[in-house]
Amino acid sequence: MAESNSDLLKEFCIPTYIFNDETKISDVPDAPKFPVLVFINSKSGGQLGGDLLKTYKSILNEHQVFDVGEEAPDKVLHRVYMRLEKLKQEKDEFASKIHERLRIIVAGGDGTAGWLLGVVCDLKLPHPPPVATVPLGTGNNLPFSFGWGKKNPGTDRNSVLSFLEQVMKAKEMKIDNWHILMRMRAPKEGSCDPIAPLELPHSLHAFGRVSSTDELNMEGYHTFRGGFWNYFSMGMDAQVSYAFHTERKLHPEKFKNQLVNQSTYAKLGCTQGWFAASVFHPSSKNVAQLAKVKIMKKHGQWQDLQIPNSIRSIICLNLPSFSGGLNPWGTPNSRKLRDRDLTPPFVDDGLLEIVGFRDAWHGLVLLAPNGHGTRLAQAHRIRFEFHKGAADHTFMRIDGEPWKQPLPIDDDTVVVEISHLGQVNMLATQNCRSKSVRDDPSSTSHHNGEEDDDSDEEDSRNEADEFRKFGAAATFRIPDEVDISQLS
């Protein structure tokens, strides 16, 4: 057994000279078939992140294992690829094979995984290294979507060896990444940023302030840009998430266990009144009253998207996992695909699925085998225009990171626009839930006949029907000053 484990590890280990030009090249073995760089958020999963870091360093070369709290992934990858390029120019065939075969493992929550994916995207490599994700967060939507599970893993040697075996067998799979732009008018008095008074979450830190020379910049406006991989949402689910993150910042000692975190999430959904939304949340604050929504199909024109007046939460979804494994879009049946000009939900088709929810009871339908939210549209680009209205703020969220967004108080407009940016490579196991347009259509069209009844008639149902059905509630580069412990 020890010999077989040793043989397995040889296929992943990268010799020290690849990382350090002061190291002499001697007795370099055959190039590993699956060389990996491992990035771990040691603060994720309570004590699990730190334990996992120790285990990986003990079985691999410690130079290929990194704590993202100690050294940012962008600095690591830039240094490694510069070194590989230098060695390749020196006709180092071993380094060329490492460059060609390199894979990445990232262990943390969805925020950590999104950070790493954003860095890989920013490198703009001819062949970006595929990424495997270890679920160390609360929701773990990214790992779950690609078959890596959603429960926090074991951290012992055997558990890590088992994970590496899965990495060895995993297939590469493309995933769309999405650009998000937010623009709001600069204050008429003073120089403060319009969202500076808020305690900004990581989702807004993920936005890079657009420079004055950027073509997206507009005179008199503050413009932010960033990206996401899984979803953008607005409304009740983001409000519950915001309450959760606020509570975790105030009392981090209470959020060291995945099960406790999920229980707290559910309690917040109840205490904030989303199970009696018509009583605690007036319809004047519903999505249709807050924003004008426009969508664009591929190579099409902007068109208005009609949002039912009862919708209090809207989700723009890329992956089939939201709030810890729920699938708001579901599986439309063949009739609905035809009649509404929809396509099966693929993660690499350049389209986002747009889903609405009325309240927490509506979201509970996702727990049923064929449950889904109100399917609104599929789009290549989405634009939200917020004008002066009944509310002075709303709540938004990208990939699990929420923020409280101020809305216009005069005649100005806040604009949020989402558009397709490109793709990166993921590693997927045989249990992968995500579907690719490259897959055989006959194997993905209807999931072996498990179509839902696709009754979207709830759009026109009376508010009294709300109590029949749980609003599903649980990135890019993050600057050095961000507390990485909160990226769980």
From TrEMBL:
Q: Which reaction does it catalyse?
A: a 1,2-diacyl-sn-glycerol + ATP = a 1,2-diacyl-sn-glycero-3-phosphate + ADP + H(+)
The UniProt keyword set, sorted, is: ATP-binding, Kinase, Nucleotide-binding, Plant defense, Stress response, Transferase
Q: Name one GO molecular function term.
A: ATP binding
Quick check: keyword Kinase in the entry?
Answer: yes
* SUPFAM superfamilies, per the entry: NAD kinase/diacylglycerol kinase-like
GO terms under biological process? defense response; phospholipase C-activating G protein-coupled receptor signaling pathway
* Compositionally biased region (Acidic residues): 450-460
* PROSITE patterns noted in UniProt: DAGK
The DAGKc domain covers which part of the protein? Answer: 31-184
GO terms for CC?
membrane
Q: What is its EC number?
A: 2.7.1.107
Specify the superkingdom: Eukaryota
Top enzyme class, one word, equals: transferase
Q: Which portions of the sequence form the region Disordered? A: 432-472
Role played: Phosphorylates the second messenger diacylglycerol (DAG) to generate phosphatidic acid (PA), another important signaling molecule. PA is required for plant development and responses to abiotic stress and pathogen attack. May be involved in the accumulation of PA during cold stress.
Give the family, as the similarity comment puts it. Answer: Belongs to the eukaryotic diacylglycerol kinase family.
- Binding partners and assembly: Monomer.
Protein name per the record: Diacylglycerol kinase
- Whichever gene encodes this chain, its name is LOC111293819
